[in-house]
Amino acid sequence: MNAVTPPGGEQSLGPTARRMILGSQLRRMREDAGITRQEAGYSIRGSESKISRLELGRVGFKERDVADLLTMYGMTDPGERQQFLDMVKESNEPGWWRRYGDLMPSWFNDLVGLEEAAARIQVWEPLYVTGLLQTEDYARAIMSHGRKDMVNEQVDRRVALRMRRQKMLSRPDAPRLWLVLDESVLYRPIGDREVLKGQIDHLLEMIQQPNISVQVLPYDRSGYSADSAFSLLRFAEEELPNIAYTEYLTGAHYIDKRDEIERYSRALDMLAVDAETPDRSRQMLLKRRAEI
């Protein structure tokens, strides 16, 4: 039995992805050994739910717990054990976003880490330009609810966090970002006219990058395939499942069940078919830019 070595080099993975890969490997070892989650939890002075959270990569790992589990699962080779435990240490290293921890709800932390590790990010947005393609002024208008008197240091830091997230799109190994945008977004008065004009200019600039595509869904075809925003993150590492991400007012859902992922994937396919092509969408952006 071999410990995990992420393909493409370990340095390409952030702590969130590392935890998920390690959790997946622990689950496979437990199942191969014929051990239940309840039995595994008892061995580390925990519960069945704790093992479930560990195997999903939802919580950090304690080296002592993992060492005990490896023994229980039959991994006795010193070299393999050390390789696994080294990755445990790396999975607990804080990501760059931890400096914004006081601004980020706990449910948002995983999204930032998953974005960093994704090979492809597909997004449907019926209300706003997705955060990964927003300008500072557009993001600030959203975060201050359109009121300049509400802009303060906390809002500025939230904007800085959003801008920092976007840097991954310019990496040599940048993920592929594919956005389907409802046409109404091009008319929604976020900020003032100059803010919206600047945002459309930014979209026109970003779609020149080979890893970024935008399709606009016309008014007369919207509302049929999906009625709320969501993202689908796909990973090059086979140990990582595809994940759909949706937000609600006080939290978010991370969905990785295969049948549910298939439904989100089909919805994106239908949205792409209904939307204008990337070239036609660019023409729509240019036309709207000239109207403002």
Automatic annotation (TrEMBL):
What InterPro entries does the entry give? Cro/C1-type_HTH (IPR001387), DUF5753 (IPR043917), Lambda_DNA-bd_dom_sf (IPR010982)
Which Gene Ontology molecular-function terms are recorded?
DNA binding
Q: Which Pfam families match?
A: DUF5753, HTH_31
Superkingdom is Bacteria
Provide the DUF5753 domain boundaries.
Answer: 108-286
The record's section on SUPFAM superfamilies has:
lambda repressor-like DNA-binding domains (SSF47413)
Which protein, by its recorded name, is this?
XRE family transcriptional regulator
